[in-house]
Hints:
The chain is α/β, with parallel strands linked by helices. The protein has 2 domains: about 10-150 and about 285-445, EreA/ChaN-like  fold (3-Layer(aba) Sandwich), CATH 3.40.1660; about 155-255, no CATH class. The protein has 17 helices and 11 strands. The protein has helices spanning about 20-25, 35-45, 60-75, 85-95, 105-110, 125-140, 155-170, 175-185, 195-200, 210-220, 230-255, 260-280, 290-295, 310-320, 360-365, 375-380, 410-415; strands at about 25-30, 50, 80-85, 150, 285-290, 325-335, 345-350, 370-375, 385-390, 405-410, 415-425. Helix 8 (about 175-185) runs antiparallel to helix 10 (about 210-220) and helix 11 (about 230-255) packs antiparallel against helix 12 (about 260-280). The longest helix is centred in the middle third of the chain and has 24 residues, at about 230-255. The two termini are about 40 Å apart.
Amino acid sequence: MKTFYIKNDPNLNGEIIDLNKLIRENSIELENENSLNELIDKIGDAKYVLLGEASHGTYEYYKWRTQISKMLIERKGFSFIAVEGDWPDCYRLNRYIKNYPNSGSSAFDVLHAFNRWPTWMWANWETVALAEWLREYNDKQRETHKIGFYGLDVYSLWESFESIIEYLDKKDPIAKQSALKAFKCFEPYNDREGQTYAKASTMVPTLCENEVIELLSKIRLNAPSYNNDPEEVMNLEQNAQIIVNAERYYRAMIKASSESWNIRDRHMVYTLNSLMDFHGANSKGIIWEHNTHIGDARATDMVAEGMVNVGQIINQQHKDEGVYSIGFGSYQGTVIAGREWGDVMQIMKVPEAVKYSWEYELHRLDAKDRIVFMTNDMKQNLGNKKFGHRAIGVVYRPKYEIFGNYVPSNIVHRYNAFIYLDETSALHPLHIKPDGNELPETYPFGV
């Protein structure tokens, strides 16, 4: 049955568009892993593939991103997966999947040690499955061809300090003094989330800025002499850069502006560019982050607030090298989240999408999972149309979501493709025992 949207649909501004027919002609049903072949073909030779999610606690988003990532690694020669996670934690998992000495006996053990809230984002059975697959894959590769796993985020100031001090204690005791000097500057503000430092910076604007810049400069100056393990040197420099940008982030956090968001996303792009440089001229990167990071900010109301994001910056910097962004979303289901920051994680119901939202329109089509491609036909017909597009964070209050969980989005310019899942289910955290203490059925397609 065709559905025509006329003047009573505010998204289409009084125009008559057969949205049902338009989407059907520019999408395919998502039934199993074979359905992804067309998507992989359309990605082509892109060097950057950005895989989103509409929440941080949905099983199906992790499942499909895993399968896409496996296909990109096996068929397209991608070099690493970089995620919206803390660098030190993810670097430990990187060492495990590459089978470095003393890197842990299992992915479960490594991931179970992830203890920063929200722990479930990476300490989950879905990531265990991916990590064990990567370990098995890497065991068959030459050292230079092993796939990496890294965190892009800026939040790990204290963990990065610990990593630097431990490394310099063995390699450069003199430079270690700079690390200890910067660490001691931060010590009075150790609440782990930066709130105390942020408040103090309103009275002393520079606070520890000079100390962390001095530390980064000293590490960069001495790095050529730390030549025993190139990846460990890269890890050292990255931790120093995190400390510099985390200090800037905390100072900006106290202001009611977009500055802290922009510092964070620019840091993630800096990290991604560093990883591409480290892996060489032929490197390719897979990025896992929330839709709000990987979908181009210029296609949302974020731009009016002076905000940029990873998707926008990567497209601006690397469009000629090939950038392909894939958004994810669902109509209804369940999700893991907390009702406030630091709250106990819980399974929450995701209500039916609100009327006229992007997810609502896809559900009305035929309530089937599908991959929608943002073709020229889609852009020609929907190029100036905005839909509400659901975004669920780690803090979620379902009954209030209509007031703050829908981002006005020009979908056809925000992504290159969109994976719609009609009903989704909650992620499986490691810190909650699965039924019967058995591994739940979260391993995608038998992996």
